[in-house]
Specification:
11 helices
Length: 272
């Protein structure tokens, strides 16, 4: 969603032919540049991982075996030389950001945070993964981002903010990235509040008995969206969860029950 809004605000993403095409489950498009996605996939594969199998947190991204991929990355970037302010979106960047920092010194990263339960539910609907797996992957992705992009290199925003005051949040991002906010209203106009299907709160995380470490990490990320950087975000590698099978007490029962409460409420609101 955010990349689409920023594109409407003037962020260059490359030619339309290079972007991942929309699909039936995402008719508004993915807004991901196929070239960057391909490099990230090759990179993760070279390291023995994948988007759903993160490489080790202390993986070496600067070794000579990655030189061919660095060449591919630089050729990709050269195509943007004539652009003003440009960027790309790929969730895999969360795992490969050290590589891109090496190729693009001074790279700025915009991190959009969403409630972990919402992400886990979305992954379950799309990929058939368990809630436990989705929560672990959410934590690994976000901890890797925070560990790699320091406070000066990153801006953390929250999915919810774009349904509350999208124009203000897009202006904040525009100032951070360094492009004019003259077209911010164009991006804000694309928000369709009725398309939001699922929403969870921190209380829901507590009720689902998600680990306290994950909840505190999420709270720290939320605080940073308000301009505060908490100690919880420092030393993010410590305590990073693995992706081995595990259990999250009550989670598989709690989330479907919570969804069942949300959906009838939405049906009622559409009828009124």
């Amino acid at each position: 969603m955010l990349t689409r809004l920023l594109h409407a605000c003037g962020l260059y993403l490359g030619p339309e032919s290079a972007l991942m095409p929309a699909q039936s489950d995402n008719p508004e498009g993915f807004w991901e540049h196929l070239g960057f996605v391909a490099v990230n996939d090759e990179l993760l594969n070279e390291l023995g991982g994948a988007w759903d199998l993160p490489p080790e947190a202390d993986e070496n991204f600067s070794g000579p075996r990655l030189d061919p991929l660095r060449m591919k990355a630089r050729l990709l970037i050269e195509a943007f030389d004539s652009a003003g302010v440009w960027g790309w979106k790929d969730p895999r960047n969360s795992l490969t950001l050290p590589f891109w920092h090496d190729v693009l010194p001074g790279l700025k990263t915009v991190i959009i945070v969403r409630n972990p339960l919402e992400v886990a539910h979305s992954m379950r609907e799309r990929n058939g993964t368990s809630y436990s797996f989705g929560l672990r992957l959410w934590e690994i992705y976000n901890r890797r981002l925070i560990d790699t992009a320091n406070a000066r290199q990153r801006l953390v925003t929250h999915y919810d903010l774009f349904f509350e005051d999208p124009e203000t949040e897009l202006q904040r991002i525009a100032h951070f990235i360094g492009f004019s906010d003259a077209k911010v209203a164009n991006g804000a106009a694309l928000i369709k509040k009725q398309k939001r299907h699922t929403r969870f709160s921190i209380d829901d995380l507590v009720d689902a008995r998600v680990s306290n470490e994950l909840i505190q990490f999420y709270r720290a990320l939320v605080s940073e969206t308000k301009g505060k950087t908490e100690k919880t975000l420092q030393g993010a590698k410590q305590g990073e969860p693995d992706l081995l099978p595990g259990t999250v007490s009550r989670l598989n029962a709690f989330v479907p029950e919570r969804i069942a409460h949300i959906q009838p409420a939405q049906e009622r609101s559409r009828r009124t």
